[in-house]
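sanity check both lines:
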Amino acid sequence: MKLGFVFECGPEGPDVKVCLYLLKMLDDTVETAFEALTNKPGLINDCGRAAKNLIEIENCDKVIVVWDLFPAWREKGQNPCRKEDREAIAEAMKNAGISKKRYEMVCIEEELEAWLISDERVLRKFISRKIHPHPVGNIKKIKNPEGRKNPKTWLTKLFNREIGGRRKYNDIIDAEHIVKGFEDFNRIRNSATFRRFALKTVGRKL
């Protein structure tokens, strides 16, 4: 099976690295191709063309459109709507002549970092490498990672507390290193959108 992905980041962006790494953990036999459409408006506007290329040129069996509910920037009072996003993507696919059977949608709530903060064991391991030989403080298990508002900011606060030096979370650098610490799905399965990702990509129920 070959899956095509449409992401809302650059070709070396965190969405690409995190999703493809987790997909390999789910099933390392799946072949992949992807188009990176820079940001959420770009994804919504151009996903139909991208999916068409992935199916017709890259010979993908199915296309998975992955995006964050919240864009990279946030404004006070902002309240994005997953239903509106899905309708806009479906319309773009219809206009490009892509059958509903050839694509799936995975909206991550609130954003990709909800998956990364789901496993406190992985975060502890990542931080310990930064501050060794000093011990890592208490990092509590998050039972509902998608209920954590603004997980990017949550990670920065964690880094500030544990690493110090006003160390900010950098998605381009840190996301890949964090996800490579995942060894199982025992914690990340608490994320409903990750369970959807597993089901819609390789048909695996977690």
Summary: The first strand starts at residue 2 and ends at 7.
